[in-house]
Amino acid sequence: MSDRHVFRLSGPDARSFLQGLVTNDVDKIDGGLVYAALLTPQGKFMADFFLSKDGDAVLLDAHEAQADMLRQRLSMYKLRADVVIEDAGLQVHRGLGDVPAGGYADPRHPDMGWRAYRTDPQPDTGTDWTALRVAHLIPETGIELTPDTFILEAGFEALHGVDFRKGCYVGQEVTARMKHKTTLRKGLAPVTVAGDADSGTEIEANGKPAGTLLSRAGDRAIAYLRFDRATGDMKAGDATVSRIEV
């Protein structure tokens, strides 16, 4: 997992500091791994990560591409909180099957296996993680998760990445309003693909834009769709795309 970066947040205010920022309940780390996100005040995606307990500290496991931004953003929010934010010097290991000693079940879906944090790099296991993501509609940073993403459209509720009872956090008001006062008209959905079409290809239905093709594994893919238009056979370049009803 060379594309991951692990931070350690320590100090007496570490948990309360994170609790006021992220979408999930940080205290759940007492029971295992927690999946969460950091949002803008307008409720849009900035970063997703896993949180775990490390003694009195908290480990934050994020995509490497987000590391510099997270370091800057967390430092900006820190103000007078008694928190130390540092690189943990740990490597992310992933696998399927029984969770090893010191590991954690992936909270997003049982079929996503486990994660562990160790000092040594993990050898390549040959697991097709993209195929697993596609099969279970799990978004990836930089593909399904972008600065324009609202996390409920990306399925964060089903992925146990947001807690609606935890209280305030950055972007909470917009997220709660989307949950309780609106019906989602756009979002991620599983599709089948017949033919050649790359990630980022626009999907059309009846000659109108209906969405975008994203992660693909064989004849299955994740697409961002306008649900009112995503009916019947659609086109993505030369490929035929059909929504899978779940």
General description of the model:
This protein is of the alpha+beta class and 246 residues long. It has two domains: 4-181, 2-Layer Sandwich (Gyrase A, domain 2); 186-243, no CATH class. It is 14% helix and 35% strand. It has four helices and 14 strands. The protein has a six-stranded antiparallel barrel. It is globular and about 55 Å long. It starts with a strand and ends with a strand.
List the helices and strands and how they pair.
Blueprint: E1 4-10, H1 14-19, E2 34-39, E3 45-54, E4 57-63, H2 67-78, E5 84-87, E6 91-95, E7 104-105, E8 114-118, H3 129-135, H4 172-181, E9 186-194, E10 202-205, E11 208-217, E12 220-226, E13 233-236, E14 239-243
Antiparallel strand pairs: 1-4, 1-5, 2-3, 3-4, 6-8, 7-8, 9-12, 9-14, 10-11, 10-13, 11-12, 13-14
For the biggest sheet, the summary is:
6 strands, antiparallel, barrel
Order of helices and strands: EHEEEHEEEEHHEEEEEE
Q: Structural class, please?
A: alpha+beta
> Would you tell me which CATH topology of the largest domain applies?
Gyrase A, domain 2
Mean pLDDT: 96
Helix content: 10-25%
Number of strands: 14
Could you name the CATH homologous superfamily of the largest domain? Probable tRNA modification gtpase trme, domain 1
- What does the oligomeric state look like here? single chain
Strand order of the largest sheet: 9-12-11-10-13-14
Number of helices: 4
Low-confidence stretches: none
CATH class of the largest domain: Alpha Beta
C-alpha Rg (nearest Å): 19 Å
Outline type = globular
Residue fraction in strands: 25-35%
Question: What's the structural domain tally?
Answer: 2
- CATH architecture descriptor of the largest domain: 2-Layer Sandwich
Span from first to last CA?
31 Å
